[in-house]
Structures are given as C-alpha cells and as structure tokens.
C-alpha cells in the first residue's frame, strides 16, 4: 500500500550503527592526515635515524661501536628503541603537535559544537580522538623500529666496524693486539612488546594532559605550550628527593631506560639503579586516568562550545 513505512529487518539497525561507528573512526584517522602531524612524525623518525647514523659513523672511524647501537641489528631491539623514543621527549613533542592541531584547532575554530550536533556523547568523541592518536603512535613505533633495523643492517654491510689493532708498545707484548668487540645485549620479543605497551601507556598520559590543556585554553598555541611545557619545566626536579613522585621517574622506571643509551636512543632521565616498573606503571595509569577524566569534563562543559573570541 502507498504511504506505508517499511519496517527495518532484524539486525539492520545494528548494521547501520556499526557502519556509522566505523565511518566515525575512519574520520578521526583521516583528521590526523595533516601537514603538522605528519611533519612532526617524519621529524621524530628522522631524528631517531640520524642519531643512530651519527653514532655508527663515529664508531666506525674509531673501530669501537656502542653496544646500544650495534644491538639494533636485531629487530626486537630496534622496536624497543623506537618505543623509547616515542615514550620520551620526541613522543611528547609529537603528541603536543597532534593534539594542538586537531582538538585544539577544533575548539579554537568553534567546530566542536558542530561535532556535538552529530554525536552528543562527549565521552565517545574523546575516546575516538584518543584511539586515533594511540593508533598513530603504534604505527609510528613499528615504522621507526623497522627503519632502525634496516638502517643498522645496511650500515653493518656497507660500513662494518672493525676493531683497530693496538701497536705492540701499547699492548704490553711483542705482538699486535686486537681488542675484542664490546658485548652486545639484544632485546627479546617479549621485551620489545613490553616496551611498546609501556610507550602506549605513556602516550596516553601525554594525550590526556594535552587534552586538558586544549579543553581549558581552547587554543592551538596554548594547547601546544601547556601540553608540553609542564613536563619540560619540571624535568630538573628528578635530581631532588621528590623524584619518585614525578611522572618523569615513572616513565624511566616503567621502560627501564638504560644509562648507556641516554641521548642516543632516547632523550629523558635514565632509570635509577633499582627501577620499579610496577610502581611506574601504576603511577602513570593513575595520572592518565585522572587527566582523561579532567579532559572529558572540560570538553563537555558549555565553555567548550563557544569559539575563542
């Protein structure tokens, strides 16, 4: 009969909802396809590769290679090193740029209110943005780890490090003495997976703190400054007795950042002689949860719906 409405088939509504959710997630991932985000990601990868290349060339000229660099010929070690980079200073800067150019720009331009018209559940919108940023971090870690592994493997073939022979007068004997290479400690797959998981938790902390900055300031520059600045300014406090209560120490504890790789495979404070990964993980999880809730509360406020004058 004309004018009758077709009843949806069983399961058709759920299928539509699933399709809409997939489209929303795909939209969040496409929103990261911007010049600032991909420029910052490329810069992180380039810095990581440049550090390794410089250390390899320096070691090749002297005939002695740092074990933390030569270990990158193993894929698990390269993935672990990539996780260290994304969980420390370079990852902090990348997260600040991504959140500022995404959520910060959305709030500053006033398009957040338009998003709320299509999806009024702020928790869902916030979760999508966090999930997209964590997916970017995971992809960046894997790509960086693969490039580190390929780069070091190529260096090992093209510019092998051969220990220089010590003249007899310096070796204490009549024969030419060749010192043995430095021992190399490679990572296992379990260690690489643990480092990547820890880096994702640290990234969640960075994202949540930058989300709080975006919700409070509704500004791209303000989000970038407040999302990165506090952790940089408070970094010298790790030298004080209050270090065990700082997120800087928790990150070093969780990832067990070795002293010999500092400023080579990561830019951060090194782990103490007796690191406590469990304490660091619990501290970071609590900080991430608190900051994520604070960002959600700020984003659902009426103030977030008004663009910056």
Write out key terms for the chains shown.
single chain, 309 residues, mainly alpha, 67% helix, 0% strand
Beta-strand share of residues? under 5%
Percent of residues in helices:
55-70%
Low-confidence stretches: 174-179
Please, how many helices?
Answer: 12
Cα-based radius of gyration, to the nearest Å: 24 Å
Please write the string of helix (H) and strand (E) elements. HHHHHHHHHHHH
Average residue pLDDT? 85
- Dominant shape: globular
Task: Please report the distance between the alpha carbons of the first and last residues.
Answer: 55 Å
Coarse structural class: mainly alpha
Question: Based on DSSP secondary structure assignment, what is the total number of beta strands?
Answer: 0
Largest sheet properties: none
Question: Overview of this structure, please?
Answer:
It is built from 12 helices and no strands. The protein is mainly alpha-helical and 309 residues long. Helix 4 runs parallel beside helix 9 (189-217), helix 5 (89-109) packs antiparallel against helix 10 (220-233) and helix 7 packs across helix 9 (189-217). Residues 174-179 have low confidence and may be disordered.
């Amino acid at each position: 009969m004309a004018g009758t409405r077709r009843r949806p088939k069983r399961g058709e509504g759920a299928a539509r909802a699933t399709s809409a959710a997939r489209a929303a997630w795909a939209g969040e991932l496409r929103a990261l396809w911007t010049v600032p985000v991909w420029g910052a990601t490329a810069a992180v990868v380039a810095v990581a590769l440049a550090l390794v290349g410089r250390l390899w060339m320096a070691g090749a000229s002297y005939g002695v290679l740092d074990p933390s660099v030569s270990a990158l010929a193993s894929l698990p070690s390269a993935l672990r090193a990539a996780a260290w980079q994304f969980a420390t200073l370079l990852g902090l800067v990348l997260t600040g740029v991504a959140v500022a150019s995404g959520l910060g720009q959305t709030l500053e331009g006033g398009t957040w209110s338009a998003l709320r018209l299509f999806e009024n559940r702020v928790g869902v919108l916030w979760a999508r943005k966090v999930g997209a940023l964590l997916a970017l971090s995971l992809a960046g870690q894997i790509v960086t780890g693969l490039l580190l592994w390929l780069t070091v493997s190529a260096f090992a073939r093209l510019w092998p490090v051969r220990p220089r022979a010590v003249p007899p007068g310096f070796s204490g004997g009549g024969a030419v003495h060749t010192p043995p290479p430095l021992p190399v400690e490679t990572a296992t797959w379990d260690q690489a997976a643990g480092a990547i998981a820890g880096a994702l938790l640290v990234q969640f902390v960075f994202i949540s703190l930058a989300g709080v900055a975006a919700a409070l300031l509704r500004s791209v520059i303000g989000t970038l400054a407040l999302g990165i600045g506090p952790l940089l300014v408070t970094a010298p406090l790790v030298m004080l007795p209050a270090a065990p209560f700082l997120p800087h120490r928790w990150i070093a504890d969780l990832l067990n950042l070795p002293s010999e790789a500092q400023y080579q495979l990561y830019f951060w404070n090194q782990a103490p002689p007796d690191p406590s990964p469990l304490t660091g993980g619990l501290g970071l999880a609590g900080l991430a949860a608190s900051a994520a809730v604070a960002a959600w509360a700020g984003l659902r406020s009426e103030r977030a719906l008004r663009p910056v004058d």
